[in-house]
Structures
1.
Amino acid sequence: MRVLGIETSCDETGVALVDGERGLLAHALHSQVDLHEAYGGVVPELASRDHVRRLLPLTRKVLAEAGCTLADLDAIAVTEGPGLAGALLVGTSVAHALGYALRIPVIPIHHLEGHLLSPLISEPDLAFPFVALLVSGGHSQLMRVGGVGDYELLGDTLDDAAGEAFDKTAKLLGLGYPGGPAVAKAALAGAAGRLKLPRPMIASDDLEMSFSGLKTAVLTLVRAQAALTAATVADIAAEFQEAVTDVLCAKSIGALARTGLDTLVVAGGVGANLRLREKLDAAMRRRGARVVYPPVALCTDNGAMIAWAGALRLREGRMPAAASDVGASGFGVRPRWPLDSLQRP
Ligand code: KG4
Ligand code: ZN
């Protein structure tokens, strides 16, 4: 059973081919970082247009690398939401056109479900249930994952997502875009603790998070400096990274304690942060718990996680309902789509 995966929800065009028995056969990614850099954030219309340019060449590349043709495909998994409407439409248009032409099913995948299940790509034997820390540009959530399609929200951010806070802090510090890797790089040359930032909600008796106050604290700190030297920028970056990762680590431990589970899975772009990984590794070792990360290349948006989620859903016969009921050949997108609305059939 071979599933082609297509991801175009934001600023990465991702395509991958997964084989039910042999695993990931090939994947290809085009990042639009250079395209949006000058604007300091993703410009939706530019994103859609670039997906149009990239998607078919990437699909050809993936098929060639896997030594397959379109005739070998059994299904197509595509990100149907959440994300930018225009960008999502590029992926769903291509997926449904191919599905219609090849007479094979199109599986609509929730982008965050792709992230949640992505650690299974490198650890196919990972057993449910586990706690997932989902930290991306748009989300900071702790979920209890009981199985494919069985997701319970344990805690969420009340405002900005962790990745968003990294991106905004990078902007305040005059670092590049996207902010996460830029702040992490700057932090290497700095020392945390010289300048102090808060650890928002770290001691709250729940699993909720909040990162927008932290960004404001960075702004206050930046304004208080006589000159924003490279050394000060590095110190603020280091302290900021320390603050965010302290909170994420404490809340992850809280989620394990609350659920009584002993496996933590980390997913989403911020999961690529090496300081976060160091802290979680140490904390989990102390608890005798296990922590699983997708390979760094699969932490940020990619087609492999979508193909993988599609293959798992196909294998388990748990196909999510499609976005629209506009007719047998119709399709749609869900720019807003709460993950916990995915119910086990
Ligand atoms: O999962 P992702 O690729 O896209 C979304 O679905 O949002 O996550 C992107 C986010 C961005 O905010 C980016 O700054 C952040 O992940 N990110 C990082 C790192 N690499 C990417 N944040 C901290 N440290 C990193 N190394
Ligand atoms: Zn993502």
Note: The longest strand covers residues 23-31.
2.
Amino acid sequence: MSQLTGIAASNGIAIAKAYKLAIPDLSFDKKKVDDTSTEVERLTKALEISKSELEKIKEHARTSLGDEHAEIFSAHLLVLGDPELINPIKDKIESEQVNAEFALDETAQMFIDMFENMDNEYMRERAADIKDVTKRVMAHLLAVSFPNPALIDEEVIVIAEDLTPSDTAQLNKQFVQGFTTNIGGRTSHSAIMARSLEIPAVVGTKTITEQAKEGDILIVDGIDGDVIINPTEDEINEYQKKQENFEKQKQEWAKLKDEPTVSKDGTHVELVANIGTPNDVEGVINNGGEGVGLYRTEFLYMGKNELPTEDEQFEAYKSVLEQMGDKPVVVRTLDIGGDKELPYLELPEEMNPFLGYRAIRLCLERDDIFRTQLRALLRASTYGNLKIMFPMIATLDEFRQAKAILLEEKENLTNEGTEVSDSIEIGIMVEIPSTAVIARQFAKEVDFFSIGTNDLIQYTLAADRMNERVSYLYQPYHPAILNLVNNVIEAAHAEGKWAGMCGEMAGDSIAIPILLGLGLDEFSMSATSILPARTQIKDLSKEELASYKEQLLSMDTADEVEAFVREKTNQ
Ligand code: PEP
Ligand code: MG
């Protein structure tokens, strides 16, 4: 057995065999063949297997993730059935007497080059489809297994270098017991997805893909961040116990599911959830969420080949609002860039994507994309209690411009005779230090703040949230962060507005007492953190915690803050 330590990214314990998610080696040799009909047969067979796999994946994606995720596989199926691609491969095998691998690669490459050089965006997307499909067919020709996370049908723990949000979205949590990756941090998007899927995860192990083989037995301890490869009998027993205790604790927490969140001395705060898709709402309700504090809409734009239409978006927003009834739903407008890419937008590569062209910066320039989203949101606004917020606001001008576009689209819709709610609050994410520093000026114009500490911490301490080597600088309890957070809360309250937090810090058991003492009104976190947080808050006195405020804000280090909170709250 060997043990690795990474970052605990999603609670719980998983014990199962390893499933490696990696593109296999697809290299091959060009061969001359005499028997071309056998080669054509091999090709036909590989195409058939690929087709039936894709049909299954598409069906799976449709039922578990919705039509929009299934669409990408329809495009792949079209490629597989296209005689204009398939016939030239067969012709090449026959006329040049070459093996199927070579004919497939050469022909596909010719089409890929041709489509990639076209002006038309739709055609360029077809190049990406052909690339994807060719890999799958090639894997079957070479008889190497091709990873299909959506098709996993036995209990496994997925191991990978990293998981893209769309890989994560394909995981079926009935079978995938957990996952562990080489890279990533607690706030990387695969970690966030793991928490919304409620599967244990440990990220940032650096070497899990080297240390573990397919089929090895793994224990993933998402509570403490450990991964054990081929554990002993004793270790399995020990972790099964830990798993049972965790389940018992969950039952305790569940008793507070339908209770409001009230501190020992009677202060009510809102405990709401972060979601990525309408499917996550079920988890919010099951975990007693009092609303949605952050709906990350970028997942609607990911894992597909083109921008989602206004109607597609409208359906998603309406579904979330309807499911949440009269509870608040804060929807964040598109926050693409950083570690969330949209290949079909073909944005040039940047040296510092987290400091680059992303989120509101992109939306204000590509206002066609922005207006489509805003119209879909405004149309959905009559189905529930909608609040809209803009991400990555660095200047008041950005907020004013974004709000003006929103109001313009509202007016357009009203003129077209479409009903739009009149009580939509418009707020911003505070995740850039400049905004936290002049929160007072912003508070006069916004309806609310939601502090995005995942980014605020990385920008304040200049430490990339994805980079494990600088993760020691990722310090939520750093006095600089506490001062910025306090500044935002005070600024909001001075103008009679509310301040929430939707970064991971809001669900952290050391941060919660601090934030309660600073007067935070709304805590938005992974759905699974809500009940433990409610249980914790029930035993805290807000008044007592508020009395520590000046002391905490003037401390020297994060360690000092942490030690103080641990002592005062018996943690
Ligand atoms: C944040 O930055 O804290 C946040 C909630 O946004 P994201 O994690 O999506 O960047
Ligand atoms: Mg952010």
Note: The pocket of phosphoenolpyruvate (ligand 1) is lined by residues 187, 294, 296, 335, 431, 452-455, 502-503 (CB under 6 Å).
